[in-house]
Amino acid sequence: MLIAACFMPLFYSQTIDEHTRLGIWKIEEDESFFLDKVPLIRSISHPHKRLQHLAGRFLLQYLFPDFPLMLIQVADTRKPFLPQESHHFSISHCGSFAAAIVSTEKRVGIDIEEPGQRILAIVPKFLSERERGLTLPHATDQLMLTATILWSAKEAMFKWYSLGEVDFRKHLQVEAIDFKNSESGSVLADFRKYGHQSLSLSFQLWPNLVLCWISV
Q1: Which helix H or strand E contains 31, and what residues bound it?
Q2: H-helix or E-strand containing 152?
Q3: 74: β partners
Q4: Which long-range contacts (CB under 8 A, 24 or more apart) does 132-136 make?
Q5: How far apart are CA 147 and CA 122, in angstroms?
Q6: Which pLDDT score is estimated for 4?
Q7: What pLDDT was estimated at residue 1?
């Protein structure tokens, strides 16, 4: 079931299945709004990063009201997790947006990005020569968009794996991109850290915004 938010600041939400939900929050509030609802567990000196952090934590409980925020720990890989894994979750931030995905059954990963020259500049670092052939070379904006989708997909896979020490070019291989329409599609990938594991990711597009996620 798809739920498109018709009010702000909940920019977008989707119920993937009975166990899994995701959402995007457009950050329009100040810190006091979030601090009234969620704890600031660790010290973050940069004001905007602190606001993003709070918005992401707030979104977890927005998606699952029983989400145990106080039990979140951070692994050596900087991945936040719940020790008892009552909920699997992933958070991403980009500009004035925070995105999160939560599942009580599946491992998940999510990433939100703004297309830009910074991603084109690092294409050789995260895409193989074969993968670069998957991009759309007809116009700079299309090339940038596709590169951003591929980067976002690999970031989501990296978070889904969660254990670090992953080579984006070697271990996270994109096999195909399927544009279902101008606003959404899927990415078929091969996770090669240990043998081969086929993965399917989904993406959603808005003007100047890309969201990619996986739940397996």
Answers
A1: helix 31-35
A2: helix 140-161
A3: 80
A4: 134/174, 134/176, 134/177
A5: 10
A6: 41
A7: 33
> b/e per residue, 109-121, with b = 16+ CB within 10 A?
bbbbbebeeebee
Q: Residues for the chain: how many in total? A: 216
Give the strand pairing for 97-103 and 88-94. antiparallel
pLDDT at residue 77 tops 90: no
Query: How sure is the predictor about 136, in pLDDT bands with cuts at 50, 70 and 90?
Result: low
Task: For residue 210, report the phi and psi dihedrals to the nearest 5 degrees.
Answer: -125, 130
Answer yes or no: is pLDDT of 6 > 80.
no
- Name residue 56's amino acid: G
End-to-end CA distance of the chain: 18
Q: Tens of pLDDT along 11-39?
A: 999 999 999 999 999 999 999 999 989 88
DSSP reduced 3-state for 30:
coil
195: amino acid identity, one letter: G
* 0.90 surpassed by pTM: yes
Q: Render 71-112 in DSSP notation, one character per residue.
A: G-EE-TTS-EE-TT-SSEEEEEEETTEEEEEEESSS-EEEEE
